[in-house]
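ESCALATION

Customer reports they have been waiting on this structure for their group meeting. Please prioritize. Original submission:
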Amino acid sequence: MTKEQYVLLYEKYISGKCNEEEKRLFEQYSDEFSLDNAQWDEDNLGDEKQAVARMYKRFHDQINYQASWFNRHKFLAAAAILIILGIGIYLSINQLVKINTSPTDLVVQKNSIHPGGKKAILTLQDGSQIILDNSKDGIVANQASTVITKTKNGQIVYNSSHSGSPDLKSVPYNSVTTPRGGEYQLSLPDNTKVWLNAESTIRFPAVFFGKERKVELSGEAYFEVTPNKEMPFKVIVDNTEVEVLGTHFNINGYKDKTDVNTTLLEGAVKLKNNKREEVLKPGQSGISSASGIKVKQVNVEDAVAWKNGYFVFQDEDIYSIMAKASRWYDVDVEFRGNMKGKSFFGKVNRYDNIRELLKNMELTKEVQFKIEGRRVIVMGK
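Update from on-call: job pushed to the front of the queue and completed.
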């Protein structure tokens, strides 16, 4: 195969026009790196086969290390074409990255935007506020019979010593709010664990009482609910109610969305809105909207990727991706041009600098970015 034939086959492959035989031939391209008419400067680059093997391995390792923002064959084919055509070939991936440095890399080096961290504000019944990321470890407040403590690993824990049935009017309500660029973990009075994502608020009583445990949520949170059959746990998000006995689930109900998405990892939950009622099984996601509730099978690991330190996108549009980036990196986003139809698959560590997220999306050649202060400008290509 000549390099010209290879390039034509590559173009057919990425455009989806290959037949089965051509697909098979293309996907075996790693054996075709030494092609007819390909020029190789052995004095400067060394033995061709050894250099190509090292180059192939470095590209392959780079894909596995970073986000999979593109089809693997497509990316490696691009690497192969670089090798075949002799365009800026060096045996260090770092040198190659310098050659292909995008405008984003250059701008971000001057405008470093770091990821979010443990930041939250505790608001007590009387309206007083405690900035949790600045407060010392230990007891931060007392509410009725409940002691509120900040642990060494940056969590808020509620410990209630109340016995009997409290007066409904005497039970104080608290809220924990994360800003843009913040996340926090807390343990509610019943020992239910909650992870709050950026720009989220949870409101709850300082002690649970009566026939149910009810909390209110705005934003996104992951729950590990302490079982109590006599006292069901309920989460209210706008007009949607999620009822559980004891389970692990994620709720995404940001104000800028038109629906509330609940994903069940373990146990069972019942979703209710003013249109419908559905019971979810593990591995299912329930999307509650004005038209009712839609249930579908999902990869639950993707739904809680944020809790585990990752951004994961499965055919997600650029508007949704940048909304998440805006909340986590505390940046404003401006779109220039119509981005409709631009969606991505990918996974990237959300504790990396924002440049990793943007750089990997730029590799798809679908979009490019410019950073001005704390504003990210998104442009089509």
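Sent to customer with the following note: DSSP finds ten helices and 24 strands in the chain.
Escalation resolved.
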